[in-house]
Structures are given as structure tokens and as C-alpha cells.
């Protein structure tokens, strides 16, 4: 019966829309029970056209024959279809991705959300699987927007940069709950196993005020595997040529009375000592981690709720060869590095819905976490602890009609930091109540305006006023323009965010009164599709400018025996330009190329200087090959990284100096995977050309001498690594 | 450096080429598929069946084209596999057990409301 209605609607809308200029294609989106999906997003790739299905699951879209439509809906696998004829389109979406035995249509692994006013790049699970190792820091290997680099020569940890600026200016969250902040902002990416992640949403520029004031250059939001639709069982094993082994096990199941549950578990271990550059220091620390995540979800008609817990313990031991887990820094004759982090987080979300008024609702987000860090760098010990409570209440409704929507609410952030390094201690309690209001003007598919502001009262630093504005305009069928501007704040953590400099003999000099960092970010993007015969070439260009009112300046240049951390006096800014082109060459081949330009400048010692370790120019090239139903997948990513300015070492003895610039270099990663009904196996390599920075540590022979420095790291320290693994999946019943 | 780069790309390409080497036999089979979901079901099942290289079902003609390795499977095995999924394959009748498991829209009359 329902089907007749749907059919009638489709036929009717088809008949009516046919008279409009251009070609209109209509269709319906249903689930596997043939029920219409309401509010599913339908986007024409490359053309910038997008729409949402109505209450009958029907949509119509003005586009051309041969266009690829990406159809997506929360909790379902996205699907891409090609418009081949004038027939009504029927799109069937399936719950949960790539489950065993289920029929899964090949879908785009990354796309830019056409309807969002914020420039958002969405990485689906299929994209994340292209770089199978290991945690969140590797998840961006096939994406041009986020740069991943090694933080130092000893800890083996990787850090990200966005818009040319340090990763600490990016707000990282899991399902809108802030994560990887404060003391974990350096190693925290390593605490999120890659196989737990379902999608990553990378937003450039200032984010929505609803999520706080901390997104200064961008936001990265993660969606973990979900209790309601993930595989019943997912096992993943991974080994690499260094000897690192990893095991991941995910389980999700339905419980009684609308409840469902997911358990995600991860262990890894790396016990070998690899020193390919023969400096006596291991290139990667030994490490072991145990990580557990459990989430329950209630899915009712009026209430949706979830609650969960994460427990994690990670240990690293590195430095000179022979230094092991639990060795004492004081008594050891070796220069050791160790870090032990334990964290517990309890979190939840509750949404109150009004089924008759889908635009109205209440949302409550809450999270509490405890984190303890014990670390050592040579003879120096570090202890840190952070306790955080985060509460956010959001109400959304419309003003008159759905053209005018708003979100408003209040939040509370509590952070308690205690840090002890060598002989000095740093303690801080932050209590920040805040309120926000965000208005969205949505007159149609072609234009969206979102303007928001928030006021926060910081117990230590006074009032924070955070205005943000985003606009999206669909200039033509094939072109979408976005602009954004906004302010952001964050409290710096002088030691935790600069641990790389602790691996050196440098004297740490920190300004006693570090101010919160304050930035303005503005910029925009153009997404355009160019028809080339049968296919569309998608071109994305974006430019962002970030300028700091206040910043924690890290000055490595004043003296090679010091690290000076002080408040900005003068200008500090970053220009970031990215041009990206991507295209499907055939049904099997996709290529993507990008060029990035960064000009990151700050005032060091009253002098405007280029920020060290940032390459002005970068190229990125990715090619991927997929056969039907992902039976075969192959992927290669080539990156060229231009020269980077290095900090001044001219006051060191001649033989221990480093150049003013690093050489440019090329990295190549590749992976092949073979799909089966039960899952897949994969084989891949990172840094296949085996490019390494040969001399990452200055004066490695005298780690307790005055010239020792392991912080001048601009390239990969470990070289080529080959890995293999499997994924075994059992479909949800 | 450049030589290494070329070599790697060649290795990469040859791996890919191996995956789609076409020494295969081809067969076209008339099926009773009626919708997009049937097409997916048949294509998916055959893609991961032993010895099969490539599958494409044309919904207008309901003909599925299959490339396969003669040493590992045969046209008869493929027809039989299609009947097990729940569809007729040329002169072979569908297997009632497979047909029962098909979603509603893929069954007889699933599309005439």
C-alpha cells in the first residue's frame, strides 16, 4: 500500500519537475525491509547539488545523466549510483557497513558533505582501511587535509597539523565529546585504535559554537563503531616487519527493550629494539597497550540515550638500547625514555525527541575522565594528572518555520591539571561555565547561513566571547562556495604540549604567566565539478587565514641550549592554501592529487620568522583501484614534502650543527587487500622508499652532555615497514 | 631515487594487473533477476564464488556475464550456483530453498502492486 503512495509521489514529482529547466531525476530511498528512509541525504557528486528525502523517502534532483549520486543516511552504508536513464531511481541502503554475506554496493570512501555550511570532508570506513595501521594518527595517510609528522626522535609518536598549524588547535571529539586535549594532546592520537573508528569528519576552519570555543583551526569528529548497527563480531590481527603485533576485537549486539551494546577491545605489543641509524637510540620505543571501550545505547521513540566507558593503559620504553619497561631513570646508566598513561572515561548522551516535531529536541552530553601520566626523559621525571568533567545541554527548535532554526544551550567545563617536571610543579583548576546560541537560516538547498556566538566565564582568564559565522552558497549546479570566520580559545599546557623538547639538554624556560591562546580564523572553499566526457573531475580549493591575538610561543631559536616558552608579543599568522583534484578514471580507478601551500609566521624574540618544521610546499597523490564488492583493492599514496626551516644551531660546535633547512623528501605508502565473504586480508607498506632522517639526535654519544638534542626532527625516523593483517567479520543477525 | 620510484609504481601496477588478468573463459546466462537488489545479490554471491573473475548482470536483458577460470569452475557450476541463490539460470530451475530466503521484493510479483 505504502509502495503505491511512494510510486505515485515519484511519478507525480517526476511529471511536475520535468517542466523545470534542466533534467530532473527522481527516486526513492528505502531500507532492506522496503521501508522509506526519511531525511536521507542525496548528493550529486561534483555538481554541488544536494537534497534530502521527504516523508515518503522520495527525492528529486536536478542534474545530468551520468552523474554519480551519493546517498547517505545515519546508521546506513552510503551508496553511490550513476544516473543512467530517465527511470525513477530506487536506492536501497543497508544498515551497517561491509557486513559479511550482505550485499554491499561500492561506495565513495571520501566525500565532501554538500549540504553542510562548514567545509567537511568525511572519511568512511573503507577509506580508513586503506591505511590499515594502527591508530588515529595513521588514519589521515590517504587524506590531504591533515598532515601527520613524527614529534621527536625518541617517543615514536606522531602528531597532526592542520592549516599549517600545530594539532593542538584542532578540536578532536568522539561523537561531539571532546577528546585528545590537555595532557593527552601529544600522545592521545595513539590511544584511539583505527579499527574502532567508523567515520571521521574533518572540518576546516572554526567550528560550530555548540561544541565549545576550542576549535581554532578545525574539528575532527570521530564516530566509533555503533552498538545498533556494527558487526556482531569483528576480529582484526596485524603484524609488521618491525615486530609490532596488534589484535582488535569488536562485538555489537541487540539487547532487550530497545537497548543495544558494543564492546571494542584492543591490545598491541612491540618489544624489539630497532636502531637502523646506529646512534645507540632505538628508532621506535617498545610499547604495549590495552584499551577497552563499552557502550550501551537505548533507542526509544521519545528518548535516545547512550552511556559508555573507556579504559586505557599505554606504556612506552625507549631511548638508548637496553632501556626497558619499568627501568629506573635515576639509577640507569642509559638515557631512557618512558611514558605510562592510564585513563578512564565515563561518558553519555541523552536526546529527547518530539516525533511530531522532528526539528525540536533536547540533547545532553556528559563526560568525566581521569588521566595519569608518569614519564621520564633521561634523568628527568615527569608526572601529570588531569581530571575533566564536561557537560553540554543543547535545545533546538525553529522560529516560525523550518527556514529559521536555532540551537541554544549551556555548558560546563572543569579541568584540574597537576604537573611536576624536574623540580617545578604546575597546578591549575579551570572552571568554565558557558552559554551559546546558534541560528541557521535555510531558505532552500541553494543557500545556508549559520551564525553563532558563545560566552564563557573562565575562572582564571575572564570572559571568552566566541562569535562564529558560516555560509554556504550553491553558485551553480556544479559549484558550491563556502565561507567561514570565527574566534577560538584554548589554555596551553607548557610541558605536556612540548614534551618533544624534553628529549634534549635544553634548559626549559617557561613564562610564569602564560595567557590563553586566542585566534581568529577566516577562509573559504570552492568545490566544483567539471564534466569530462562520461566522468566528473572534482576540484576543491580552499584558503584559510589564522591570526593570533595571543599564543604560546615556543622559541627554539634564541639559543640551542634553551627552549623558551612565552606569550606572543607581535604578530603570528598562518596562510594555508590547498588545491585538490580528484576523478574516477574508470569504474575501478580513482585518482586524487593535491597541492598545499603554508606560510606560517610568528614573532620569535621580536623578529617575524617562519615557524620551524613546517614545509611551505607539499604535493600529495593518491591512486586507488577497487573491483566490484571490494574483492580486490589496491591503494598507493605518494607525498612530496618540501624543505622545512630548522631551528638555529649556529651556537653549537661546528660538527654538531644542523643546516638552516631540511632537505625535501618523498614518502610512498601502498596497500593491497583481497576481500572474501568473511572479511579480508591485506598486505601493505609504509614509507616504501625507506626515506629516513639519518641524524635525528644531536650528540647521541653524550646523552647527558650539554649538546644532546633529540628534538630537531623533521622527517621519519624509522624507515620502511611492511605489514599484513586480516579482518574477520560476522554479520549482525 | 627516481629508479626506485618507478620500480615501486611498476610493482604496484603489476600487482593490480595480476588481480584482473584476463585468461578467463566467458559465459552469458539468462537469469530471472527482476530488480536492483537481485542484481546485487547475484553479483555479490558469484563474485566471491570459487574461480570467478568478473560478474556483470544487465537488468534489462536479465543476462549475467561471468568470466571464470576453467580449471576451478565451469559454466554448469555457475548456473547451479545461481539456482541455489534462488533464480532460474538458462534452462535450470531455481532452488526452492534459496528462493524462500530471498527478500520480498525479489520474489515473484514483488514489484507488481
Describe the structure.
The complex is a heterodimer of chains A (733) and B (113). Chain A has 733 residues and is mainly beta. Chain A is built from 2 helices and 42 strands. Chain A has a 22-stranded antiparallel barrel. A 6-stranded mixed β-sheet of chain A has the order 8-9-15-16-13-14. Helices cover 42% and strands 17% of the residues of chain B. Chain B contains 4 helices and 3 strands, in the order αβαββαα. A 3-stranded antiparallel β-sheet of chain B has the order 1-3-2, covered by helices on one side. In chain B, α2 (36-47) packs across α3 (75-85). The relative contact order of chain B is 0.17.
Helix proportion range of chain B: 40-55%
- Termini separation of chain A: 27 Å
**Globular, elongated, flat, extended or rod-shaped: what is the shape of chain A?**
globular
Rounded radius of gyration of chain B (Å) = 18 Å
Characterize the main sheet of chain B.
Answer: 3 strands, antiparallel
Q: Extract low-pLDDT stretches of chain A.
A: 1-22, 96-107
Secondary structure: helix percent of chain A? under 10%
Shape of chain B: elongated
Strands of the biggest beta sheet of chain B: in what spatial order? 1-3-2
Largest sheet of chain A: 22 strands, antiparallel, barrel
Blueprint of the fold:
The complex is a heterodimer of chains A (about 725) and B (about 110).
Chain A: H1 2-17, E1 24-30, E2 41-44, E3 50-52, E4 58-62, E5 68-72, E6 79-82, E7 89-92, E8 110-112, E9 120-123, H2 125-128, E10 146-150, E11 158-162, E12 165-166, E13 170-174, E14 177-179, E15 197-204, E16 218-224, E17 233-240, E18 245-254, E19 259-270, E20 286-299, E21 303-319, E22 336-353, E23 361-377, E24 380-399, E25 401-421, E26 424-441, E27 447-458, E28 462-476, E29 479-490, E30 507-510, E31 517-532, E32 535-550, E33 552-555, E34 562-567, E35 572-584, E36 589-604, E37 607-610, E38 617-626, E39 632-641, E40 665-676, E41 679-686, E42 721-730
Chain B: H1 2-19, E1 25-30, H2 36-47, E2 52-58, E3 63-68, H3 75-85, H4 96-101
Antiparallel strand pairs in B: 1-3, 2-3
Amino acid at each position: 500500500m505504502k509502495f503505491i503512495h511512494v510510486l505515485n509521489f515519484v511519478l507525480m514529482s517526476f511529471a511536475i519537475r520535468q517542466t523545470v529547466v534542466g533534467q530532473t531525476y527522481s527516486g526513492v530511498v528505502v531500507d532492506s525491509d522496503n521501508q522509506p528512509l526519511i531525511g536521507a541525504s542525496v548528493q550529486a557528486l561534483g555538481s554541488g547539488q544536494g537534497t534530502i528525502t521527504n516523508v515518503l523517502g522520495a527525492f528529486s534532483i536536478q542534474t545530468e545523466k551520468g552523474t554519480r549520486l551519493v546517498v547517505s543516511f545515519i546508521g546506513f552504508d552510503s551508496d553511490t549510483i550513476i544516473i543512467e536513464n530517465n527511470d525513477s531511481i530506487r536506492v536501497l541502503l543497508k544498515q551497517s557497513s561491509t557486513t559479511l554475506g550482505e550485499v554491499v554496493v561500492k561506495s565513495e570512501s571520501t566525500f565532501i558533505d554538500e549540504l553542510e555550511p562548514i567545509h567537511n570532508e568525511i572519511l568512511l570506513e573503507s577509506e580508513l582501511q586503506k591505511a590499515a595501521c594502527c591508530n588515529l594518527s595513521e588514519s589521515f595517510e590517504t587524506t590531504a587535509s591533515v598532515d601527520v609528522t613524527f614529534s621527536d626522535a625518541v617517543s615514536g609518536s606522531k602528531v597532526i597539523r592542520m592549516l599549517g598549524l600545530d594539532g593542538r588547535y584542532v578540536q578532536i571529539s568522539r561523537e561531539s565529546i571532546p577528546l585528545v586535549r590537555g595532557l593527552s594532546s601529544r600522545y592521545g592520537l595513539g590511544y584511539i585504535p583505527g579499527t574502532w573508528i567508523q567515520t571521521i569528519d574533518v572540518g576546516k576552519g572554526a567550528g560550530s559554537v555548540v561544541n565549545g570555543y576550542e576549535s581554532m583551526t578545525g574539528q575532527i569528529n570521530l564516530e566509533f563503531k555503533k552498538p545498533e548497527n556494527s558487526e556482531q563480531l569483528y576480529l582484526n590481527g596485524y603484524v609488521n616487519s618491525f615486530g609490532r603485533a596488534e589484535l582488535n576485537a569488536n562485538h555489537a549486539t541487540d539487547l532487550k527493550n530497545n537497548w543495544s551494546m558494543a564492546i571494542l577491545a584492543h591490545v598491541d605489543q612491540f618489544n624489539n629494539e630497532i636502531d637502523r641509524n646506529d646512534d645507540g637510540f632505538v628508532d621506535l620505543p617498545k610499547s604495549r597497550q590495552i584499551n577497552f571501550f563499552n557502550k550501551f545505547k537505548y533507542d526509544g521513540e521519545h528518548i535516545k540515550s547512550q552511556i559508555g566507558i573507556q579504559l586505557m593503559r599505554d606504556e612506552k620504553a625507549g631511548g638508548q638500547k637496553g632501556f626497558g619497561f619499568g627501568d629506573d631513570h635515576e639509577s640507569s646508566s642509559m638515557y631512557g625514555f618512558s611514558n605510562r598513561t592510564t585513563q578512564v572515561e565515563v561518558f553519555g548522551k541523552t536526546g529527547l525527541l518530539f516525533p511530531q516535531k522532528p526539528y525540536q529536541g533536547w540533547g545532553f552530553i556528559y563526560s568525566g575522565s581521569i588521566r595519569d601520566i608518569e614519564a621520564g626523559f633521561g634523568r628527568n621525571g615527569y608526572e601529570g594528572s588531569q581530571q575533566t568533567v564536561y557537560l553540554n545541554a543543547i535545545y533546538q527548535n525553529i522560529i516560525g518555520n523550518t527556514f529559521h532554526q536555532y540551537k541554544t544551550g549551556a555548558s560546563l567545563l572543569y579541568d584540574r591539571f597537576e604537573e611536576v617536571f624536574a623540580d617545578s610543579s604546575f597546578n591549575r583548576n579551570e572552571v568554565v561555565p558557558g552559554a551559546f546560541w546558534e541560528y541557521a537560516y535555510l531558505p532552500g538547498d541553494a543557500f545556508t547561513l549559520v551564525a553563532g556566538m558563545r560566552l564563557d566565564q573562565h575562572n582564571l582568564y575572564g570572559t571568552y566571547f566566541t562569535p562564529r559565522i558560516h555560509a554556504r552558497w550553491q553558485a551553480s549546479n556544479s559549484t558550491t562556495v563556502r565561507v567561514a570566520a570565527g574566534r577560538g580559545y584554548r589554555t596551553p599546557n607548557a610541558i605536556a604540549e612540548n614534551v618533544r623538547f624534553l628529549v634534549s639538554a635544553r634548559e626549559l624556560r617557561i613564562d610564569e604567566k602564560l595567557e590563553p591562546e586566542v585566534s581568529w580564523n577566516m577562509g573559504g572553499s570552492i568545490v566544483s565539478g567539471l564534466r569530462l566526457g562520461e566522468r566528473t573531475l572534482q576540484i576543491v580549493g580552499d584558503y584559510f587565514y589564522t591570526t593570533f591575538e595571543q599564543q604560546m610561543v615556543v622559541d627554539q631559536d634564541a639559543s640551542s641550549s634553551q627552549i623558551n616558552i612565552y606569550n606572543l608579543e607581535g604578530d603570528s599568522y598562518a596562510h594555508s592554501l590547498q588545491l585538490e583534484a580528484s576523478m574516477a578514471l574508470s569504474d575501478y580507478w580513482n585518482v586524487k592529487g593535491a597541492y598545499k601551500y603554508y606560510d606560517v609566521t610568528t614573532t620569535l624574540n621580536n623578529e617575524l620568522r617562519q615557524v620551524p618544521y613546517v614545509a611551505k610546499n607539499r604535493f600529495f597523490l593518491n591512486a586507488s583501484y577497487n573491483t566490484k564488492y571490494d574483492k580486490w583493492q589496491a591503494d598507493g599514496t605518494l607525498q612530496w614534502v618540501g624543505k622545512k626551516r630548522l631551528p638555529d644551531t649556529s651556537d653549537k660546535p661546528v660538527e654538531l650543527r644542523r643546516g638552516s633547512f631540511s632537505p625535501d623528501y618523498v614518502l610512498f605508502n601502498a596497500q593491497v587487500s583481497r576481500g572474501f565473504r568473511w572479511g579480508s586480508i591485506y598486505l601493505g607498506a609504509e614509507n616504501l622508499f625507506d626515506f629516513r632522517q639519518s641524524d635525528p639526535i644531536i650528540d647521541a654519544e653524550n646523552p647527558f652532555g650539554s649538546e644532546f638534542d633529540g628534538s630537531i626532527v623533521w622527517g621519519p625516523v624509522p624507515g620502511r615497514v611492511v605489514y599484513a593483517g586480516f579482518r574477520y567479520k560476522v554479520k549482525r543477525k | 631515487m627516481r629508479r626506485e620510484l618507478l620500480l615501486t609504481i611498476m610493482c604496484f601496477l603489476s600487482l593490480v594487473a595480476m588481480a584482473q588478468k584476463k585468461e578467463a573463459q566467458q559465459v552469458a546466462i539468462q537469469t530471472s533477476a527482476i530488480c536492483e537488489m537481485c542484481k546485487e545479490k547475484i553479483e555479490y554471491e558469484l563474485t566471491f564464488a570459487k574461480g570467478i573473475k568478473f560478474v556483470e548482470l544487465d537488468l534489462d536483458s536479465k543476462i549475467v556475464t561471468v568470466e571464470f577460470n576453467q580449471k576451478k569452475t565451469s559454466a554448469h557450476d555457475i548456473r547451479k550456483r545461481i539456482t541455489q541463490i534462488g533464480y532460474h539460470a538458462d534452462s535450470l530451475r531455481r532452488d526452492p530453498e534459496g528462493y524462500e530466503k530471498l527478500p520480498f521484493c525479489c520474489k515473484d510479483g514483488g514489484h507488481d502492486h
